[in-house]
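In response to the reviewer comment on reproducibility (Comment 2.3), we provide here a single inverse folding case reported in full, input and output, so that an independent group could reproduce the run without further information from us. The structure tokens appear first.
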């Protein structure tokens, strides 16, 4: 508002005549929300329309901070646009958000007008606010949506389309179709059903059927079909669309989206192939895949189980899985199983990874890792276990070695003869990340353009430590001496290598190796091989980097000496006894004198004569076969032993070696000829001597054959004698068992009966007497007690001589009773089970011998094993009957124990082996100190069945 000194002439009332009260009344009666603000836009006065619309009182308008009323984006708008315009003396209008007292955020249209004084300074700001038009918001949102839709359709790799069913042409198709078909959208417009022309011939009938379905209004909303891309490759398209109908329900168009499904189709085909390979893979992998029921008994295992544990599959399925663990691992496994069972009771099921020491069938132990998870039926109830076991013995040994090596790392680092540096590049990694966020992608170009940035990288390298070899290599007195003078160590070659290291690290690399020069602190130049390595576990942080320097100065000097010796090498080749020639194409570029001596040529003749040209006619076919692959390029070297005809007409035996080499940077052939004529003569002499030796051998063989026939007859006679001895032994054992049965019957039926009668007589001895001396009565009772105990002992002896339960109850029930009685007497925990022998009838000899062997084995466990438990198993595993007795006792060394048995004249184990042999079986004893003993008896069912 501007003022002027000139008085208006009869102007009447003007705005300048308004008093503050009149101005306030004008604002109050206005229905538009208005406010007077200070230069900082803080309201000084607000009219009733403003207060009623936004719900604030005048006091709240004066006292509330801008953060309470305005959202953050509006505060930012005031600061960035409104205030700069006001301070420039300009008005500002536009939309922004404001928060009412109830907390609702609404969009308003505002106009801010500055009020200036005579000096042009802003004294007040008048603002007018009203609700933003709903239609304006809708138009804005619609415009934004149209822009988003256009951007999406034009930039997505999928293709949006509308197909007109009346014309068969596309009303619209997005650019994404080019990526799938190779054709631009313009090539689709005006073409009737272009996709039909792109599908393979065998699919066109299908396309016609689907087109008829579309016209009739029947179709699936999604199809997958192949097309031939413009470049000739086969692609798969997935079409998802909606059928558009007119007001009468007639199909008029199809709108939808096409997606490239080629990768998905290839993945599906690969999945089918993988499913077919799965069975082959599982059955042939070295890891064992297995399943167990809820009782942890094996129900399935891959064939690799036999290689891992040593048990055949049929034996493994009958095995208690706890027997696959060493005692220490078994205890730990059972503790973990208890904890897992408690978790499962609380509904927590997890994948378990367990490492135990396993016990193989041959008694050796291995370390294996098992991954186990619970399996469930269709109702979600626990069904069993699925697992995979892997032999990690080597890894376990490596881990143990690694633990040991970590303790020695620092010593090895310090005392290593190779120069080692340990660096921390954490700050350097952060700097690289910062550069990447600033848009740097080509670090090579960046460092070449900004050498100061490369120098800054050097300041971010923190050297954690260097070893003694580093100080000796660079002639430094101490670590501090070296780190304080690193600028003296680096050369131009060093800086070039440092640049490559920085480019490598910034680009995500982790290893660098190169050959550079360094300067010692004494000023000498040395050659070193630098190896820069980031361990895998530090690749994300670069907090640990190992740098090694290997002094190759002697090698560099040796290379120089080698170059000087090349001339001496030529002298050696020219004077060797082997003929050497180098042929490049059809030209002989080098030939030594030895080649001339062997071929019988000299001088210029050698350059036009090849060893292959002088091959004896009878050996030319051999030479052609040996060197044909060399001529075709399939082989790089060919060797043949053959005859050649010299220039004088004589023939010599030679070894011809032809190989491809590089000569002067071009491919050439090296031909080496060795004269072996003296060796061939010696070979002929040896062949004659060999024929004479063969004749003598045949004569000696005839003599040995006659002796062998005599020995065969003697062996047959001995086998008959052994069979007779075996028969006598079987009869002796039968007689022994019969005698035991007779004695057992006599003890039970006679002695025990007589003693029972004696007890009865003792008990009725004083019947009829009214007065009896108490001492005599006590003595009578004592005698009766002694006789009763005698009867019990006699019956035990009779039962031990011949258990009657064997005839009455059968082998299984008798053995179960034996285990129960032994456990009751000894206090051992004896677990007995029989599987699959319910329908097997064994003859008496087999039953009584099995009983005696198990009886003897349990007696040994009680007397000698020091065990807490034992297991007795009878398993029918066709074609054998398996009997296994094992304990968790102290065990023993088998060979040593056999020697002690002979010295102590004990017959327990020997009699068990003899009984097994008599019934056609075999007995195996396995024992290890601290791991218990296992006795396995294998009896063929054909020999054990009752006839």
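Designed residues, in position order:
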């Amino acid at each position: 508002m501007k003022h002027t000194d000139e008085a208006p002439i009869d102007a009447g009332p003007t705005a300048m005549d308004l008093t503050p009260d009149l101005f306030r009344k004008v604002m109050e009666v206005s229905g538009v929300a208005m406010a007077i603000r200070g230069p900082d836009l803080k309201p000084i006065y607000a009219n009733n329309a403003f207060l009623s619309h936004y719900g604030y009182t005048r006091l709240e308008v004066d006292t509330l901070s801008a953060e309470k009323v305005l959202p953050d984006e509006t505060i930012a708008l005031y600061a960035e646009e409104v205030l700069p315009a006001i301070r420039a003396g300009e008005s500002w209008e536009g939309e922004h958000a404001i928060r009412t007292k109830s907390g609702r955020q609404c969009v308003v249209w505002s106009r801010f007008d500055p009020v200036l004084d005579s000096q042009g300074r802003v004294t007040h700001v008048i603002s007018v606010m009203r609700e933003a038009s709903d239609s304006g918001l809708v138009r804005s949102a619609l415009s934004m949506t149209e822009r988003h839709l256009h951007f999406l359709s034009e930039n997505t790799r999928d293709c949006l389309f509308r197909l007109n069913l009346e014309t068969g042409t596309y009303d619209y198709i997005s650019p994404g179709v080019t990526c799938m078909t190779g054709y631009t959208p313009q090539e689709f417009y005006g073409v009737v059903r272009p996709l039909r022309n792109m599908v393979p011939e065998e699919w066109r009938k299908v396309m016609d059927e689907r087109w008829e379905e579309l016209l009739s209004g029947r179709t699936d909303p999604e199809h997958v079909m192949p097309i031939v891309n413009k470049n000739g490759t086969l692609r798969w398209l997935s079409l998802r669309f909606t059928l558009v109908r007119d007001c009468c329900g007639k199909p008029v168009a199809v709108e939808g989206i096409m997606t490239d499904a080629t990768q998905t189709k290839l993945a599906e085909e690969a999945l089918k192939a993988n499913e077919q390979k799965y069975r082959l893979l599982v059955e042939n992998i070295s890891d064992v895949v297995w399943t167990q029921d809820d009782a942890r008994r094996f129900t399935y295992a891959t064939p690799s189980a036999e290689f891992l544990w040593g048990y055949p599959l049929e034996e493994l399925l009958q095995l208690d899985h706890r027997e696959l663990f060493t005692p220490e691992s078994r205890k730990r496994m059972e503790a973990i199983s208890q904890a897992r069972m408690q978790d499962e009771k609380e509904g927590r099921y997890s994948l378990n990874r367990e490492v135990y020491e396993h016990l193989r069938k041959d008694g050796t132990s291995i370390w294996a890792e098992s991954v186990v998870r619970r399996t469930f039926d269709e109702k979600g109830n626990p069904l069993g276990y699925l697992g995979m076991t892997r032999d990690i013995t080597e890894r376990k040994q490596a881990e143990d070695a690694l633990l040991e090596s970590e303790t020695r790392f620092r010593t090895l680092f310090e005392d290593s003869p190779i120069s080692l540096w340990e660096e921390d590049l954490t700050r350097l990694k952060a700097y690289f990340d910062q550069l990447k966020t600033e848009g740097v992608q080509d670090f090579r170009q960046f460092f070449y353009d900004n050498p100061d940035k490369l120098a800054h990288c050097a300041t971010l390298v923190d050297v954690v430590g260097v070893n003694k070899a580093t100080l000796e290599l660079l002639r430094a007195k101490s670590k501090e001496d070296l780190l304080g003078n690193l600028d003296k160590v680096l050369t131009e070659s060093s800086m070039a290598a440092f640049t490559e290291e920085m480019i490598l690290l910034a680009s995500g690399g982790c290893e660098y190796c190169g050959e550079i020069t360094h300067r010692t602190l004494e000023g000498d130049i040395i050659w070193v091989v630098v190896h820069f390595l980031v361990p895998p576990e530090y690749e994300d942080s670069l907090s640990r980097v190992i740098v090694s320097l290997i002094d190759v100065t002697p090698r560099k000097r040796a290379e120089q000496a080698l170059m000087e010796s090349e001339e001496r090498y030529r002298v050696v080749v020219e004077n060797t006894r082997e003929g050497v020639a180098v042929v490049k194409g059809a030209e002989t570029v080098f030939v030594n004198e030895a080649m001339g001596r062997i071929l019988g040529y000299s001088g210029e003749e050698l350059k036009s004569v090849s060893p292959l040209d002088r091959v004896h006619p009878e050996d030319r076919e051999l030479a052609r076969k040996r060197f044909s692959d060399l001529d075709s390029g399939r082989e790089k070297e060919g060797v043949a032993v053959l005859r050649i005809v010299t220039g004088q007409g004589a023939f010599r035996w030679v070894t011809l070696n032809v190989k491809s080499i590089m000569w002067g940077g071009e491919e050439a052939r090296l031909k080496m000829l060795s004269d072996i004529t003296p060796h061939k003569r010696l070979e002929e002499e040896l062949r004659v001597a060999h024929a004479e030796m063969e004749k003598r051998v045949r004569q000696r063989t005839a003599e040995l054959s006659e002796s062998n026939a005599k020995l065969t007859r003697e062996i047959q006679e001995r086998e008959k004698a052994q069979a007779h001895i075996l028969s006598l032994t079987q009869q002796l054992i039968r007689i022994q068992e019969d005698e035991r049965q007779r004695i057992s019957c006599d003890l039970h039926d006679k002695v025990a009966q007589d003693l029972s009668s004696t007890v009865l007589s003792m008990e009725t001895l004083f019947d009829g007497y009214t007065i009896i001396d108490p001492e005599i009565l006590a003595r009578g009772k004592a005698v009766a007690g002694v006789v009763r105990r005698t009867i019990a002992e006699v019956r035990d002896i009779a039962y031990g001589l011949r258990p009657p339960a064997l005839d009455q109850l059968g082998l299984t029930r008798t053995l179960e009773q034996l285990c129960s009685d032994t456990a009751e007497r000894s206090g051992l925990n004896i677990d007995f089970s029989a599987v699959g022998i319910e329908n097997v009838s064994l003859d008496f000899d087999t039953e009584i011998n099995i009983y005696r062997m198990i009886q003897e084995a349990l007696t040994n466990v009680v007397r000698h094993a020091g065990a807490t438990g034992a297991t007795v198993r009878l398993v029918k595993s066709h074609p054998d009957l398996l009997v296994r007795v094992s304990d968790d006792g102290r065990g023993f060394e088998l060979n040593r124990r056999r020697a002690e048995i002979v010295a102590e004249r004990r017959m327990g184990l020997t009699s068990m082996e003899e009984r097994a042999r008599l019934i056609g079986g075999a007995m195996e004893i396995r024992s290890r100190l601290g791991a218990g003993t296992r006795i396995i008896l294998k009896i063929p069912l054909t020999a054990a069945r009752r006839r």
